[in-house]
Amino acid sequence: MNFDLTPEQDQLRAAVRALGRKYGHDYFVAKAKAGEHTTELWAEAGRLGYLGVNIPTEYGGGGGGITELAIVCEELAAAGCPLLLLVVSPAIAATVIVRHGTEEQRKRFLPGFADGSLKVVFAITEPEAGSNFHRLGTVARRDGDDWLLSGRKCYISGVDEAQYVLVVARTEDASTGKLKPVLFVVPTDAPGLTRSKLDMEIVSPENQFLLYLDDVRLPADALVGESLDAGLPALFAGLNPERITVAAMGAGTGRYAIERASEYTATRKVWGGRTIGSHQGVSHPLAHAAVQVELARLMILKAASLYDAGRDLEAGVSGNMAKYAAGEAAALAVDTAVQVLGGAGMTTEYGVATLLGAVRAGRIAPVSREMILNFVAQHVLNQDKSY
Ligand SMILES: Cc1cc2nc3c(=O)[nH]c(=O)nc-3n(C[C@H](O)[C@H](O)[C@H](O)COP(=O)(O)OP(=O)(O)OC[C@H]3O[C@@H](n4cnc5c(N)ncnc54)[C@H](O)[C@@H]3O)c2cc1C
Fold first, then answer.
1. Atom of ligand 1 nearest to the CA of 121
2. Phi, psi at 63, each rounded to 5°
3. If you measure from the C-alpha of residue 365 to the centroid of ligand 1, how many angstroms do you get, rounded to a whole number?
């Protein structure tokens, strides 16, 4: 057993950390408050090859795996720049194309993922279906060689920044019973596709949208994969990378908050010459949060290494557990950081309360803590399904 990263992974971690610090949380918050995107950071990360670490080298990528992408997600978040689009574009959408796209789709999309010039967001959630994907109501109908796509999606991140959205639908004749999904790569400017921005209580330069698909006409090659049967494995291919990278983002955010708080409590003095961090009522909650974050990081590395070894089923269990652990740890770390900073914790300047909304959302999305507990109860503990 070996808990060390490879020298290349260590170098990647250090290099991404340096890039993240160059921009930092103040940049992230300023962009969010101005209603702008982190375009410069994304472009520089793309130029440096960090956005394409998991894309095969023959398409211009780094040839690494989800372990490398998780490192990128974690380190940018640890510098105060948690980028959700890393999860939807290179982790979910690119993996789906790598593993289940046609060769033509790989050639067309992967070089753009590799250098970060292409952003593809991911749309599965629907207002009526919610956590129950078996109820998806977005329907794909054949019209000659084309497809017509109709339905509604909600909370879809980054549509305003992306060239395409990977839409999960079902075919017309599969409208009842178990989900038989079909995935389409839909241009965000396709006629019939409209969006409206949701007002979210999250300080983030990345936005969520309602999407309306009204007979969006798509050519046959917009369907991901060689046939309709590619849909289910393609969807599942995206889920483990999603869980693992979103967990990495949470762990990075937790590290960031604990670091900001520890710096503060190690110097702030309000009782004579002693720092507030010398009081265990202050240091123990921080230490407890640090333990939780570190435990989550271990599970993330385990899940990523299982996934990269092709052990998808085991990675599914570990990835879900990592996502759960990191979601809880990040929320705990940010809340604790706010508390030990006192009034400063609620200011924009100290840059921790700005993360409260994001870490709270991390316990709901992309899969809620309850749905993970359901998964663990059923698949690890062999309990009956209640729903
Ligand atoms: C910031 C943010 C970004 C997002 N980005 C995207 C995106 O890019 N693409 C996308 O497709 N979606 C996205 N989502 C949607 C997200 O994946 C969903 O919000 C999430 O899956 C939960 O679905 P829901 O909101 O409909 O909740 P519901 O399904 O309505 O659930 C509500 C509550 O009930 C609980 N619950 C439901 N069923 C059960 C059950 N059987 N047992 C126990 N508890 C249950 C849930 O855990 C939850 O707490 C995003 C959401 C947020 C907040």
1. 8
2. 75, 15
3. 6
Tell me how far apart the alpha carbons of residues 271 and 49 are, in angstroms, rounded to a whole number: 49
Query: Kind of pairing, strands 164-171 and 193-197?
Result: unpaired
Between the CA of 99 and the centroid of ligand 1 the distance, in Å, is 26
Q: Tell me phi and psi for residue 156, to 5 degrees.
A: -80, 120
Binned at pLDDT 50, 70 and 90, residue 225 comes out as very high
Nearest-CA residue for atom 15 of ligand 1: 155
Q: Whose CA is nearest to atom 41 of ligand 1?
A: 387
- CB hemisphere CA count around 19 (13 angstroms): 27
Q: Of the candidates 86, 235, 93, which has an alpha carbon nearest to the alpha carbon of residue 168? A: 235
Measured CA to CA, the distance from residue 160 to residue 209 in angstroms comes to: 9
**Ligand 1 atom with minimal separation from the 125 CA:** 11
Q: Is 194 helix (H, G, I), strand (E, B) or coil?
A: strand
Identify each DSSP E strand in 26-180 by its residue range.
120-123, 139-143, 146-157, 164-171
Q: Could you count the other beta carbons within 10 Å of the beta carbon of residue 376?
A: 15
The pair of three-digit structure tokens given for residue 330, joined into one six-digit string: 């990040």
- Rounded to whole angstroms, the Cα distance separating 187 from 164 reads 4
Tell how far the Cα of 361 is from the centroid of ligand 1, in angstroms: 9
Amino acid at 96: V
Nearest residue to 224 via CA among 147, 152, 115: 147
Reported pTM: 0.97
Q: How far apart are CA 290 and CA 293, in angstroms?
A: 5
Nearest CA to 182 among 228, 130, 238? 228
Pocket probe for ligand 1: among 96, 131, 235, 378, the residue whose CB has the most ligand atoms within 8 Å is 131
Q: Which amino acid is at 12?
A: L
Dump pLDDT digits (tens) for 366-378. 999 999 999 999 9
